[in-house]
């Protein structure tokens, strides 16, 4: 069984069709959220718009790579409504994939505004969103987008020859892959570049990615990429890519069908000193597999699926009861490739959600700036393992499996911080009176050398809600 994010990883470098979709009833419920969002923009209704987001909502404008939280989104949106009138707005999903109480959506938008002086501004571009469902209602938990003038209204910004060269490097890489010219590809892609495919358990280096692509090309030998949009901002290139190919070889156990498939994706490429440093890929691989006629059954390994009877939470989830409640904590970060040494303090609020199938933790920390993070933990009865995902509003992310006993939690996962991929492992020990937690962690950026990352002590100040 493959989870949503594993399926995203399965197809490699690509993207999806832009045909007007016909949604299932559950997909239409998700699509209606974006229709309501566009209607709220047109009406200038700030309260209606913000009601469509979760309290932990985070938005990234990939043109600036600056994440903003719920309060900042509300403040900025209110200021826009005060200064301008939205005259046209379309927020259109291109693909919607639902797994249990989570949904991943890719789409595009266009918006026109006119300020008090009568000056009009047109923007548009691709976006990707993550939604969660609570008590039967969908809400947007996170969204990333690229804001740029629509095609034909202005050139793609390139402030210097360096930016233009970086964009061309990316375009040339796609051309080399389509021609299966791996010699040329190796000239363009540094051996030590880190390639992240959303959902893959570990990042790829160049040679591992080439092997991955060659396997894919055996199934789709005429694969071709079309660059729908390309945006250059500083040392970052963001692309909306469409991939097309004919299924002529066995893929994921499916014999050749002769079908022509197409799907889309968003690629974010960051350069350092004129060389690719890291490359992020978010693809509609689920759409690919559905086009091949696969019947996909979600498995809760990355995003937990609801059991047949949501009231029947896995009994193993009871082991997390000791973590629920309100906690204060303090600790110290050690100097690592991720940053300098620093002391920190914070609060953690833990509770069961989704009828006890998922544990939700909200962390708010000062160190020395202020950050907020959401952590979700669940038990996978098929794999008989616990798993977690941790997402910070500063771009920090971490995920992996963990084990639980009555008084000890141990884990080892992978993460990304500031564009640097790393492995992390740690332990969390519960005191006999269950009022104190002691956490110790280590990290490795090369997979070989482990360094102390941070230590902290949690003190419970309120019991489980």
| Weakly predicted, low-confidence segments | 1-21, 150-161, 296-311
Name the structural class. alpha+beta
Strand order of the largest sheet: 13-14-15-16-17-18-19-20-21-22
Q: Work out the helix count.
A: 8
The sequence of SSEs as H and E is HEHHEEHEEEEHHEHEEEEHEEEEEEEEEE
Rg result: 23 Å
Care to count the β-strands?
22
For the biggest sheet, the summary is: 10 strands, antiparallel, barrel
**Helix content, binned percent:** 10-25%
The first-to-last residue Cα distance is 35 Å
Strand content: over 45%
Shape assignment: globular
Mean pLDDT: 79
Q: Can you walk through the features of this model?
A:
This protein has helices at 4-10, 25-43, 46-50, 70-83, 161-178, 182-188, 206-219, 285-291; strands at residues 15-16, 53-61, 66-69, 84-99, 102-115, 120-134, 137-145, 194-197, 224-233, 236-246, 260-272, 275-283, 325-333, 342-353, 358-366, 370-380, 385-392, 397-404, 408-417, 420-430, 436-444, 451-462. It is α+β, with helices and mostly antiparallel strands. The strands form 3 sheets. The chain has a 10-stranded antiparallel β-barrel with strand order 13-14-15-16-17-18-19-20-21-22. Strands 1, 8, 9, 10, 11 and 12 form a 6-stranded mixed β-sheet that branches. A 6-stranded mixed β-sheet has the order 3-2-7-6-5-4, with helices on one face. Strand 18 and strand 19 form a beta hairpin. Helix 5 packs antiparallel against helix 6 (182-188). The longest helix has 19 residues, at 25-43. It is globular.
């Amino acid at each position: 069984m493959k989870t949503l994010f594993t399926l995203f990883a399965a197809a490699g470098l690509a993207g999806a069709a832009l045909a007007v979709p016909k949604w299932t009833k559950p997909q239409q419920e998700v699509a209606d959220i974006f229709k309501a969002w566009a209607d709220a923009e047109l009406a200038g209704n700030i309260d209606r718009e913000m009601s469509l987001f979760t309290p932990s909502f985070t938005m990234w404008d990939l043109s600036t790579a600056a994440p903003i939280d719920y309060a900042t989104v509300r403040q900025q949106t209110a200021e826009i409504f005060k200064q301008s009138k939205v005259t046209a707005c379309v927020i259109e999903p291109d693909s919607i994939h639902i797994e249990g109480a989570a949904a991943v959506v890719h789409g595009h938008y266009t918006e026109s505004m006119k300020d008090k002086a009568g000056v009009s501004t047109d923007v548009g571009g691709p976006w990707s969103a993550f939604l969660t469902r609570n008590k039967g209602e969908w809400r947007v938990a996170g969204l990333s987008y690229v804001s740029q003038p629509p095609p034909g209204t202005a050139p793609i910004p390139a402030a210097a020859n360096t930016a233009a060269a970086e964009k061309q490097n990316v375009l040339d890489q796609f051309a080399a892959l389509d021609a299966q010219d791996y010699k040329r590809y190796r000239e363009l892609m540094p051996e030590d570049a880190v390639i992240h495919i959303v959902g893959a358990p570990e990042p790829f280096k160049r040679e591992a990615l080439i092997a991955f692509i060659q396997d894919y090309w055996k199934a789709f030998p005429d694969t071709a990429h079309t660059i729908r949009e390309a945006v250059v901002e500083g040392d970052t290139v963001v692309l909306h890519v469409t991939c097309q190919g004919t299924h002529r070889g066995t893929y994921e156990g499916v014999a050749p069908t002769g079908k022509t498939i197409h799907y889309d994706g968003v690629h974010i490429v960051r350069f350092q000193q004129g060389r690719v440093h890291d490359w992020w890929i978010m693809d509609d691989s689920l759409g690919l597999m559905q086009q091949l006629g696969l019947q996909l059954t979600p498995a809760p390994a990355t995003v937990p699926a609801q059991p047949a009877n949501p009231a029947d939470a896995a009994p193993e989830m009871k082991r997390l009861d000791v973590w629920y409640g309100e906690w204060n904590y303090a600790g110290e970060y050690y100097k690592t490739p991720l940053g300098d040494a620093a002391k920190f303090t914070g609060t953690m609020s833990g509770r069961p959600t989704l009828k006890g199938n998922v544990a939700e933790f909200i962390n708010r920390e000062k160190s020395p700036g202020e950050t907020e993070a959401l952590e979700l933990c669940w038990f996978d009865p098929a794999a008989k393992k616990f798993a977690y995902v941790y997402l910070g509003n500063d771009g920090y992310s971490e995920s992996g499996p963990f084990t639980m006993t009555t008084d000890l939690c141990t884990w080892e996962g992978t993460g990304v911080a500031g564009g640097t991929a790393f492995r992390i492992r740690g332990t969390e020990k519960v005191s006999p009176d269950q009022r104190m937690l002691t956490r110790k962690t280590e990290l490795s950026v090369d997979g070989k050398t482990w360094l102390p990352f941070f230590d902290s002590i949690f003190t419970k100040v309120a019991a489980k809600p």
